[in-house]
Amino acid sequence: RVQVDAPAAVDRQRRMIKNRESAARSRARKQAYTNELEMELAQLRRENQMLIKREQDFIKERSATAVVLPDCRSSSSNGGGRSRSNRSTLHFELEQRQRCRSAPAP
Predict the structure, then answer these.
(1) Positive or negative CA dihedral for 99, 101, 103, 106?
(2) How far, in Å, CA of 90 to CA of 94, rounded?
(3) Nearest C-alpha neighbor of 96 from the set 53, 65, 75, 66
């Protein structure tokens, strides 16, 4: 009877070892996945902050442009040629800003 139980005990011990190894592999996979998600989260947070800043810059520029444009319009009603040059200068500046924004990042 002792000999019959011995193979069962060996099999049971072998299963326990395999189960322990499988659990360790599973924990390692889970840890790797968690690390990957944390890195992705950090990257997305950085990207989000950059986009928020770009949006704020755009809003500032848009409000500054809204202040400048009425000035140009009011000068056009006063007297002609100079307002056109103001408008074309403003248009040129806006185009330059757009080009700078659309240029690829270094």
Answers:
(1) positive
(2) 6
(3) 65
List the structure tokens of 36.
């990957």
Per-residue pLDDT of the chain (106 residues; tens, 9 = 90+): 546 678 899 999 999 999 999 999 999 999 999 999 999 999 999 999 999 999 999 999 888 887 665 555 555 455 444 455 666 777 777 777 776 666 665 5
Q: Would you state the structure tokens that stand for residue 57, as one six-digit string? A: 């810059």
User: Do 94 and 80 meet the contact criterion of CB atoms below 8 Å apart?
Assistant: no
Question: Which of 43, 90, 46 is CA-nearest to residue 66?
Answer: 90
* Containing structural domain, residue 49: 2-102
The count of domains in the chain is: 1
- Which amino acid type is present at position 89? T
DSSP class of residue 80 equals: T
